[in-house]
Amino acid sequence: MIRSISIYDAVRYGLFLKKLEEETNFLLLEVNERKTTKEHMEKMIDMFLKVKNSTILVAEKNGKLIGHILAKGGDANRNQHCVMIVIGILQEEAGKGVGKKLFHELENWAIHNEITRFELTVMTHNENALKLYKSVGFELEGTKRNSLKVNGEYVDEYYMSKLLDK
Fold it and tell me: Residue 120: which H helix or E strand, with range?
């Protein structure tokens, strides 16, 4: 089931993010770098719920959060139609269509909120994510060279986008 996040998801969402960060090196934040207390998660969720051009959708299976997609809208008048996207799916659910479903629901949300551009970055060696993004219509716009340092090594990221019909 894909749905909008609720303030009542704060504890579960914090635990989900913590597990996600433990499973992969493909995320921006390292293990224990993010504050995941109930109070911090409630504050973050509340902030996303109050802004028209931002949202967090969660994928839930048997009462457990298994994935999320976060869209953070631009703050200026000139970029309010753009959202920066972060997506994550627990490894046990990867490759089962959860990512495509999250993107589909995000597009439905975008249509009703005057969003016409999706943006994201992805490490150039994250082949599974690249495959997903291309399959849902994202195109490569450029390379951010040495944009991250992972395990002491510099990593490039691709900058990708998808334009939505008006």
Answer: strand 117-123
Sign of the torsion angle spanned by Cα atoms 156, 127, 137, 50: negative
Is residue 71 a contact partner of residue 102, using CB atoms and an 8 Å limit? no
> What is the per-residue DSSP string for 144-166?
EEEEEEETTEEEEEEEEEEEPP-
* pLDDT reported for residue 166: 60
The full set of domain ranges for the chain reads: 2-120
H or E segment to which residue 118 belongs: strand 117-123
Asked if residues 67 and 93 have their Cβ atoms less than 8 Å apart, the reply is yes
Burial class (CB in 10 A: 0-12, 13-18, 19+), 80: middle
Residue type, 156: D
Structure tokens belonging to residue 160: 């990708």
pLDDT in tens, 141-161: 999 999 999 999 999 999 999
Q: For 20-68, what is each residue's pLDDT tens digit? A: 988 887 776 666 767 778 999 999 999 999 999 999 999 999 999 999 9
DSSP string for residues in 52-106: TT-EEEEEEETTEEEEEEEEEE-SSGGGTTEEEEEEEE-GGGTTSSHHHHHHHHH
What is the CATH code for 2-120?
3.40.630.30
